[in-house]
From TrEMBL:
Family note: Belongs to the GMC oxidoreductase family.
Enzyme active site: H425 (proton donor), H463 (proton acceptor)
Keyword Oxidoreductase: yes
Pfam families in UniProt: GMC_oxred_C (PF05199), GMC_oxred_N (PF00732)
A GO molecular function held by the record: flavin adenine dinucleotide binding
PROSITE patterns: GMC_OXRED_2
Xref: InterPro entries: FAD/NAD-bd_sf (IPR036188), Glucose_Oxidase_domain_2 (IPR027424), GMC_OxRdtase (IPR012132), GMC_OxRdtase_N (IPR000172), GMC_OxRtase_C (IPR007867)
Cofactor section: FAD
PANTHER family: GLUCOSE-METHANOL-CHOLINE GMC OXIDOREDUCTASE, GMC OXIDOREDUCTASE (AFU_ORTHOLOGUE AFUA_2G01770)-RELATED
Keyword set, alphabetical order: FAD, Flavoprotein, Oxidoreductase
Domain named Glucose-methanol-choline oxidoreductase N-terminal: residues: 190-204
Protein known as: Glucose-methanol-choline oxidoreductase N-terminal domain-containing protein
Record: residues binding FAD: V154
Amino acid sequence: MLIKYLGVGIWETVVNKCVEGGWIRGDAHDYDAWAKLVGDERWSYENMLPYMKKTETHWSAEDALPATVAAQHGFSGPVFQASVSSTGRKFPLKDNVKQAWAEIGISELPGADGNAGSPLGLAELQENRRDGLRQLSSSAYPLEGVTVLTDSLVKRVIFSKDLYTTTATGIELADGTKKYARKEVILSCGAYRTPQILMLSGIGPEDILAENGIEPVLDSPEVGANLWDHLLIRTLWKLLPSVAAQGVSMGSNNALFTEKEFATGAPLDWVVSTTLPREELIAAIAADEGSEPAADHPLLTQTRTFIETLIIYAAGGVATPAIPFDGSHISSTVIGLMPTSRGRVTISSSSPVDAPVIDPKYFSTSVDKLAMRTGLRQVAKVLLKTNAGKAFCEDEAAEGHKLILSATDAELEARVAALAGTTFHPGGTAAMGRVVDTELNVIGLKGLRVVDASVLPVPIASHLQVAVYALAEQAADIIGRSK
Ligand SMILES: Cc1cc2nc3c(=O)[nH]c(=O)nc-3n(C[C@H](O)[C@H](O)[C@H](O)COP(=O)(O)OP(=O)(O)OC[C@H]3O[C@@H](n4cnc5c(N)ncnc54)[C@H](O)[C@@H]3O)c2cc1C
């Protein structure tokens, strides 16, 4: 959590909140849906793009790229990007996997670039890495002029009140120490802890505040509501023994992956973004919403990105079945990027030491079930039914589960319920338009803003760090201009 003092390089501190990793911007339609929902074009893709560009340094020189590609990227920002090719990682199955996707109609994007606003298709993985190392935001952005308090758990925001206004004046730490802001307080505790701190400060649903003996400051029923996250399921796949013997997948017997370039990024080539069959999507929305969706339904007006699939040259991260890490298997992840399920974050006590109570309500809508089923069947088809896939993949390793291609909808859903988990992309719990206004001020109070993933009112079909960096950059501009 940060308390920030205007005039002390606010942008550095606001953006120093993101975890490093996959650099995946997402779909322009998602930012546009966000802007439309809150009625403020500053949050559209077009208007977030300058902030995305400001954040990044593309691995390639600007003049070495086609003008249309260069126009989408930054070349002098603090966060360095790297692609599979730019790091010299040459995975033996690269072309086979690409060909397998092509056989089901998914082709490579222009320049294999998924970070240009239209990710539907096959893109080369891009990561936030400099010289092979992941970048922490605290190393990418300078902290000069910023006071950082470590080992300092924030309990609550403190306020002053007069007849008409309640104004945030500072924070209280768990040990009772108080720190006062010179200008305003900005909460950036993430989608789980920001709503917790708001509630501990007396800002939240009246009943929850009362149950936990917290003196109310503002009845704000939407604090903690609207929680969304990207659900992820992994699957293991057995390689043909003759292909495995060539050392194409990471494992204890495979020397290739010990070469130094393979330590510079994840063991995969392609990030594949796909949509859902329209008629099935309409039926799923109708089942969830109780009536046929109108033509201007936000999930139908454009072809939206719903699923991300990664085929990974390593067998790992799956609870069952137990597979030796010997290069005999690969794995896949299917991620639901556009969930319509909404959960809630709440509290169980008035102590900041107690974890917030998180009910993600994953996979509770027909749309989300359709997305996960479709993603699983799609990757099974790519690996087991295409000529290119059959040339390296023998079968699915699905101990204890019905094979994907022969499973019923109910069997697939049971499998997702048993094995899927988070992608660590929660958002939405202090949503813009509900809890904060479009300048990130907590509605109904003075001197308090939220700048983190909790303000994202709708899911972004991405890995969230790019969106959070761009949000923080735009927030810094807004805050700077407001004084
Ligand atoms: C394991 C993991 C891997 C990820 N990998 C990727 C990836 O590869 N690519 C990608 O794009 N995204 C990735 N993400 C997602 C990305 O990191 C988040 O979306 C992003 O960091 C959200 O930013 P935020 O500012 O909302 O919250 P956070 O980055 O979580 O920042 C919240 C901060 O507030 C602090 N805090 C919370 N409560 C208190 C308190 N009471 N007092 C004081 N401080 C407090 C926390 O310690 C934390 O530093 C990953 C996330 C995780 C967890």
